[in-house]
Amino acid sequence: MEKHVELGCLLGYYGALLTERQRALLEQHVLEDCSLAEIAEREGISRQGVRDALKRGEDQLYELEQKLGFMRRDAALLQAVDELRNLAEKLPAGTPGKAALSAKAEELYDMIEE
After folding, report:
1. pLDDT tens digit string along 51-104?
2. 13-25 burial string, b = 16+ CB within 10 Å, else e?
3. C-alpha triplet 34, 44, 62: angle, nearest 5°
4. pLDDT at 1 over 70
5. Could you give the CA distance from residue 81 to residue 87 in angstroms, rounded to a whole number?
6. Can you give the three-state secondary structure of 59-109, one letter per residue?
7. CB within 8 A of 69, min separation 6: which ones?
C-alpha cells in the first residue's frame, strides 16, 4: 500500500489518539497533500519542526496499528466477506438461502465499512 494511502487509513483508525497538533499536521500533509514548507508557513513553525512532528505522529500511528491491529483486522474481514459474496454469486439460481446469504454478506460489508 502506498505510504500516503496507508497513513490516511491509519489516521482514520487512530487519529483521535494523537494530539490535536499532530493530527492537524498529519491531515495537512497526508489528506491535503501540503508540503513541509506549506505547513510550516500555515502553522508558523520551521520546516524541521513540521518534519519532526510528522515523524512522531507517523511512528505513533504505526505503533498503534502494530499493537491493536484494527486496520489489519478489518482488511481481513473485508476479504472474508468478499469471498462470501463471490461464493454466494456462484450458487445456482434458485438455491435455497442464496438471496439471504447475499444480503447478509452485504450487511456485514456495510458494518465493517462504517
Report:
1. 999 999 999 999 999 999 999 999 999 999 999 888 888 988 888 888 888 888
2. bbbeebeeebbbb
3. 50
4. no
5. 10
6. HHHHHHHHHHCHHHHHHHHHHHHHHHHHHHHHCCCCCCCHHHHHHHHHHHH
7. none
